[in-house]
């Protein structure tokens, strides 16, 4: 791992309790085991491993202690940033995103999802093999190009809302900034979700950023 962007200090948080529970969600089994081994060396008491978002949700429910979640940006069944948002809401105290390249859009979306750190490995972290057993090639869900046509459907107000969401603002904060109620902001986000095909805040932000619709 060669690059780390930390939300608060610019480095991976130190001073973590000597014994902690971690959840590693990485599709590639070799990369997943490497991360798990590193965490055990750092003092993790328990390291739960998952190869997909669905498996991570199941493993998460079985853990009483929820200290650190390490999630790859690309997963076989979804976008890792969206999963990180779910895990943070489920009580995982710290989140770190693992990516194969320093995509600035992914970094911004990771912060929106509540990530504490963004780690870039020296090599890409594929979610799936290059070829399935049958049929054509597969690719991770979040490797799909952003749909400029879908983003073009967003109204000026919806783009204003999404721009503030990208800055990490809550619905209440967005409403205060734009003179709207939190319920109205929620309605705008629901319409944005329908137009972009995703209800996850981090993924909506990443799609809009990649399309150049917001800064």
Characterise the protein shown here.
By secondary structure, this protein is an alpha/beta fold. 42% of the residues lie in helices and 17% in strands. Strand 7 (94-99), helix 4 and strand 8 (117-120) form a beta-alpha-beta unit. Helix 6 (156-166) crosses helix 7, helix 6 (156-166) packs across helix 9 (201-210) and helix 7 packs across helix 8. The relative contact order is 0.14.
What class would the helix/strand composition place it in? alpha/beta
Q: Supply the number of helical segments.
A: 9
List SSEs in N-to-C order: EEHEHEEEHEHEHHHHH
- Give the CA-based shape: elongated
- Mean pLDDT comes to 79
Keywords:
single chain, 215 residues, alpha/beta, six-stranded mixed β-sheet, two-stranded antiparallel ribbon, 9 helices, 17% strand, elongated, disordered N terminus
Write the layout of secondary structure elements.
Blueprint: E1 3-6, E2 20-25, H1 29-41, E3 44-50, H2 53-61, E4 68-72, E5 74-75, E6 78-79, H3 80-89, E7 94-99, H4 104-112, E8 117-120, H5 148-152, H6 156-166, H7 171-178, H8 182-196, H9 201-210
Parallel strand pairs: 2-3, 2-4, 4-7, 7-8
Antiparallel strand pairs: 1-8, 5-6
Organism: Motilibacter deserti
InterPro entries: CheY-like_superfamily (IPR011006), Sig_transdc_resp-reg_C-effctor (IPR016032), Sig_transdc_resp-reg_receiver (IPR001789), Tscrpt_reg_LuxR_C (IPR000792), WH-like_DNA-bd_sf (IPR036388)
Keywords: DNA-binding, Transcription, Transcription regulation
């Amino acid at each position: 791992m060669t690059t780390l962007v930390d939300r608060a200090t610019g480095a991976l948080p130190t001073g973590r309790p000597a014994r902690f529970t971690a959840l590693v969600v990485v599709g590639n089994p070799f990369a997943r085991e490497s991360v798990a081994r590193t965490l055990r060396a750092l003092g993790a008491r328990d390291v739960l491993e998952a190869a997909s978002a669905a498996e991570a949700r199941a493993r998460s429910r079985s853990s009483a202690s929820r200290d650190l979640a390490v999630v790859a940006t690309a997963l076989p069944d979804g976008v890792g940033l969206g999963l990180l948002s779910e895990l943070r809401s489920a009580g995982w105290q710290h989140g770190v995103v693992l990516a194969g390249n320093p995509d600035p859009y992914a970094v911004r979306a990771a912060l929106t999802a509540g990530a504490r750190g963004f780690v870039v490995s020296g090599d890409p972290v594929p979610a799936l093999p290059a070829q399935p057993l049958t049929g054509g090639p597969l690719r991770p869900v979040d490797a799909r190009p952003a749909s400029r046509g879908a983003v073009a459907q967003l109204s000026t107000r919806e783009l204003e809302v999404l721009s503030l969401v990208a800055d990490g603002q809550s619905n209440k904060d967005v409403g205060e900034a734009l003179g709207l109620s939190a319920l109205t902001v929620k309605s705008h986000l629901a319409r944005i979700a329908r137009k972009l095909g995703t209800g996850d805040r981090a993924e909506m932000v990443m799609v809009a950023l990649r399309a150049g619709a917001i800064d």
